Amino acid sequence: MQRIRTDLLVIGAGSGGLSVAAGAAQMGADVVLLERHKMGGDCLNYGCVPSKALIQTARVAHAMRGAAQYGIAAVAPQVDYAAAKDHVAGVIAEIAPIDSQERFEGLGVRVLRESGRFVSPTEVAAGDHRITARRVVLATGSSPLVPPIEGLDEVPYLTNESLWDLRELPGHLIVIGGGPIGMEMAQAHRRLGSEVTVIEGAKALGKDDPELAQIALEAVRGEGVEIIEGAQATRVGGSAGAVTVETSDGRTVAGTHLLVAVGRRANTADLDLEAAGIETTRTGIKVDAGLRTTNRRVYAIGDVAGGLQFTHVANYHAGLVVRSALFGLPARASTRILPWVTYIEPELAHVGLTEAQAKKELGMGVEVARFDYAHNDRAQAERHTRGMIKVVIHRGRPVGASIVGHQAGEHINFWAYALASKARMRDVSSMVSPYPTYGELNKRVAGAYFSPKLFESSAVKRVVGLIQRWLP
Ligand SMILES: Cc1cc2nc3c(=O)[nH]c(=O)nc-3n(C[C@H](O)[C@H](O)[C@H](O)COP(=O)(O)OP(=O)(O)OC[C@H]3O[C@@H](n4cnc5c(N)ncnc54)[C@H](O)[C@@H]3O)c2cc1C
Ligand SMILES: NC(=O)c1ccc[n+]([C@@H]2O[C@H](COP(=O)([O-])OP(=O)(O)OC[C@H]3O[C@@H](n4cnc5c(N)ncnc54)[C@H](O)[C@@H]3O)[C@@H](O)[C@H]2O)c1
């Protein structure tokens, strides 16, 4: 057995763990990084990157079908699903060197391709190694949750891990779960030529503002995706190529392939957390506002910390933990400034509080401003007029923003900055936005907020009248 003493031990080389390891090593800390599977974790290998690459193929196919609106003859695309998967693999391969063992070793990180588990509050076993670290960061991520649906263990099904290996286009894809994974893959497969049925137990895209989610869902339905809401999948049957799903409202849906996308399970099972006195919750590892676990020397970040599960959240956590573990500075994770985007078309993006949350948490004085894409000239020119921006305001400052529409994910960056910098709506309205850009939506929604105050105020009208009388 080989003993290792180090400043920082990071378990898991996904989005969060890699960011901690890179940051800490470059600041001079001695860092050991454990990874038991693929460098880059879920985002690179099974999540964000492959899904966005496939979505792009689907978008091109969709654009070909819809070219007539721009004066180009529409064509029925000949989709080669296997080639699309090659494109997906190619994109992963292009990005992989950034997350590779070689790159991290080049940064001075000691990378061990082993599974880590606690043997005491201060020691981690990994293969033949016994590691003692001043601080430990758990960044072990999450895995697809496989629900206890009757018959599921006897029927072949796909998850976000196996989907990328599928080479033949599903004839009829049944998706259980109408969250971001389910909806992104449902629309992409419909655009690639599959029949698609989504079975959602509650409300599809249920974590987003319902007013905007509705607009996105209508668009996806308009492309031919069947979305059944309020129906739990209760029983699965059939065999490869002929699958059936029974639902709580008495339907039976038949298809060729089944994708299970009903949420995530935190990867805690193999860590022997009890040996280190680390407690868990229903969703992951229990952490305080500074991301410390119930063992003060151990932090948990990213998906395994059981909060919002996004790559940028894991990266945000990583920055806080490096600050705390290396410099002993206080760190406090805020959820109020964390955006997310669902990459269906139209994109659905959000940051901060929804209208309902703001009204519940802040009570009186919450105001809402809206502006439609249809009033944006760039959106008109490009025929992307479906969509809206909605900003929730409290005491003159935005506390939340939601956007549904073309490139909503790009535009939410603006509001993420506004919330993080505690900007006022006055600051937003004073900006000059180039014409014609979609970004004008941000200024115009601020205009929509101020317009009634300016144009419908009798006091303003009186003051203007008085001043005009005195002006030479
Ligand atoms: C289909 C899909 C699409 C997604 N799209 C997006 C998106 O567009 N944008 C976005 O922001 N987020 C997206 N996400 C979420 C994003 O992938 C995750 O939030 C992110 O990967 C979490 O990073 P992490 O570092 O916490 O965990 P991971 O990236 O999961 O990394 C954890 C790593 O730890 C390793 N590990 C686990 N246990 C051990 C152990 N005991 N010892 C050693 N190693 C261990 C694992 O092998 C893994 O490599 C998507 C997720 C999915 C599934
Ligand atoms: N664009 C992005 O950033 C992106 C994309 C994909 C995934 N992700 C991350 O991955 C996480 C997991 O995504 P997800 O879509 O698997 O989970 P999710 O928890 O967001 O959605 C799962 C859905 O499945 C439904 N469900 C659960 N059991 C069911 C059953 N038996 N029958 C029918 N419906 C059922 C739930 O009501 C829920 O709406 C997301 O929350 C997100 O953090 C992010």
From TrEMBL:
Its cofactor is FAD. Coiled coil: none annotated. One of its GO terms (molecular function) is NAD(P)H dehydrogenase (quinone) activity. PROSITE patterns: PYRIDINE_REDOX_1 (PS00076). Residues 7-317 form the FAD/NAD(P)-binding domain. Residues 339-441 form the Pyridine nucleotide-disulphide oxidoreductase dimerisation domain. SUPFAM superfamilies: FAD/NAD(P)-binding domain, FAD/NAD-linked reductases, dimerisation (C-terminal) domain. Signal peptide: none annotated. Pfam families: Pyr_redox_2, Pyr_redox_dim. FAD binds at K52, G116, T140, G141, S142, D303. Binds 1 FAD per subunit. Disulfide bonds join C43-C48. Keywords: Disulfide bond, FAD, Flavoprotein, NAD, NADP, Nucleotide-binding, Oxidoreductase, Redox-active center. Gene3D superfamilies: 3.30.390.30, FAD/NAD(P)-binding domain. InterPro entries: FAD/NAD-bd_sf (IPR036188), FAD/NAD-binding_dom (IPR023753), FAD/NAD-linked_Rdtase_dimer_sf (IPR016156), Pyr_nuc-diS_OxRdtase (IPR001100), Pyr_nucl-diS_OxRdtase_dimer (IPR004099), Pyr_OxRdtase_I_AS (IPR012999). It comes from the Bacteria. NAD(+) binds at G177, G178, G179, P180, I181, G182, M183, E184, E200, G263. Belongs to the class-I pyridine nucleotide-disulfide oxidoreductase family. PANTHER family: MERCURIC REDUCTASE. This is Dihydrolipoamide dehydrogenase. It comes from Roseivivax isoporae LMG 25204.
